[in-house]
Amino acid sequence: MFILGISAWYHDAAASLLHDGQLVAAAEEERFTRVKHDARFPAHAVEYCLREAGIGPDQIDYVGFYEKPWRRFGRLAATHVDYAPSGFASFAATVPPWLREKLGIGGRLRRALGGHNKVVFTEHHEAHAASAFLPSPYRSSAILVVDGVGEWATATFGVGQDNTVDLYEELRFPHSLGLLYSAFTYYLGFRVNSGEYKIMGLAPYGEPRYVQTILDQVLDLRDDGSFRLDMRFFDYCNGLTMTAPAFDRLFGGKPRRPDEPITTRHMDVARSIQDVTNECVLRMGRYVHRRTGQQHLCLAGGVALNCVANAALLREGPFEHIWIQPAAGDAGGAVGAAFSVWHQYLGKNRCGCAEDRMRGAFLGPEYSESAIECFLAAHGIPHSRVAPDALVDHVANRLAAGEVVGWFQGRMEFGPRALGNRSILGDPRSPTMQARMNAKIKFRESFRPFAPAVLESRVQDYFDLACPSPYMLLTAPVHPDQRVAVDEHRVQGFDRMNVMRSRIPAVTHVDGSARVQTVARADNPRFYALLERFGAMTGVPVLVNTSFNLRGEPIVCSPEDAYRCFCRSGIDCLVLGEHVIDRAHLPGVSDDQGPAALD
How far apart are CA 268 and CA 387, in angstroms? Predict the structure, then answer.
């Protein structure tokens, strides 16, 4: 039996496919269209999933959709009525597309997929909860979903047991931790639903000067983690912006324009909302533990991508173990919808509950060596092919020499993190690597940190982390043995990024933390071997691992995507499978600009 899961028409559209309950493929639409956070029907992702399974649309038995459009429409309509007439502009911008495109989605899905499929609609938070628990390695656990908003719910908790997901309580719109964080994202000059992770990166530069202001005036936070927002400060219910003038007055100025400098006040605001978010998630987690009595917790929803809050919950919360859906945002709803159909709608039992059924998140397209060779030959791209047993040595030597490597291998990752198959790699020991990669490789803000990939067996030698973190969704302090004494009072603001804090400075943030990815041999043998060889050469089994893309673009999917990105950045060499492309061997190369990209 084949079950297709779909998320679409909000942001991060995606498709997934189950074959007799096993997840065989999943991908975001943006990777194929090259439109970041593409929300359109994931036609290309669906096509890929069917191709991966070797089937046609007529062989799909069920389609699971990640929300109930009529209920979401009801919330939109009710909200506009409540705020009428002031919300007319928002109503005019949002409601007509629903009438045109979304309310007849069942028929559209059937027509797009051959007309013979049964469409099952799950609640938005049910899809998130299913994506959190049903692929997890636990037979039973508590479940916590926190995001912006689904139909009405903004936070939900419950329990997963065997093949069932039962949701107990919910927090409802407009009171939303995800929308609160997004409001601060907007206020600080970053794009909503895209720039929230920049707040996490900016927060350690600031002080928590506005925490009490938020708790006293913006957020009525209770012991159980529930809260009410004072809606005088927000405009997302009836306007086209996130914050209201009262918000500006409370935090000392108008929203920052994207081209404006980031000031100390902006840093302090970022730190304050991150600290408040940590406290909200902690209180939610403690309440869920009291209510459920479970020792394991599964997390999903967009807020579950906040690795700082996740780490606080793991470190200070009551749960023994936490498992986080690697595509915790809306893309993961496609996986949850498919699993919900299989296990809940059809009542199928879970098998192998001790296993992580997300398969390391390596669920996207793979390109054979012959396909890569054909691409390179067709475009006359100079390259060399290195035998598999020599490739790891070759790349490790180049990394140890300070080069930056574009690393394209195997199946593409599902979710927002590159985990060693669509990655840009560098030497974490270099004190200039972070600045170089931000300025000349990624072309992004200088304050943004980079994540370390480390051998799972050696993680505790470098980080204070007592559990695996395969999906790069937990932060941890760099181990004291790796730290360098720093007088933090000597420097302030962005000058702090130039201070060497550890023996792996390229992956050590200004607060001494890192967003850790642990790598196991079974999950990714070639990437594991590269880390192992680099460690043997340098004594440090850690690499800088950042996603293979430039600022504002999706992670690369195909060899052509990877080559285009390579051409437009300062990456020193590109490794496509076993094929190595040297920057120095390409025509028109300079230190700062690569050759012309493909026509």
Answer: 51
Tens of pLDDT, residues 276-298: 999 999 999 999 999 999 999 99
Domains of the chain with bracketed CATH: 2-66+68-121+330-357 (3.30.420.40), 137-329 (3.30.420.40), 369-585 (3.90.870.20)
Determine whether 260 is exposed, middle or buried from the number of CB atoms within 10 Å of its CB (0-12, 13-18, 19+): exposed
Return the DSSP state at 134: T
* Residue 324 contacts residue 300 (beta carbons within 8 Å): yes
* Strand, coil or helix: 458: helix
**Whether the predicted model's global pTM rises above the 0.70 cut:** yes
Residue 483's alpha-carbon distances to 59, 222, 298, in angstroms, are 56, 38, 32
What are 486's two structure tokens?
């720093």
CA 50 to CA 80: how far, in whole Å?
Answer: 40
Between CA 105 and CA 119 the distance in angstroms is 9
- Bridging pattern class, strands 140-146 and 118-121: unpaired
DSSP H helices in 222-363: 245-250, 264-292, 307-316, 332-340
C-alpha R_g of the chain = 23
- The amino acid at residue 221 is L
**For the segment 538-596, what is each residue's pLDDT rounded down to a tens digit?**
999 999 999 999 999 999 999 999 999 999 999 999 999 999 999 988 876 554 444 44
Task: Report residue 357 as tokens.
Answer: 């059924």
Rounded CA separation 340/23 (Å): 12
Dihedrals φ, ψ of 560, to 5°? -65, -45
Dihedral angle of Cα 10, 348, 145, 299, to the nearest 10 degrees:
-110
Strand 384-385's sheet: what is its strand order?
384-385, 579-582, 573-576, 405-408, 422-426, 542-547, 451-455, 513-519, 474-477
How deeply is 97 buried, as exposed, middle or buried, from its count of CB atoms within 10 A (0-12, 13-18, 19+)? exposed
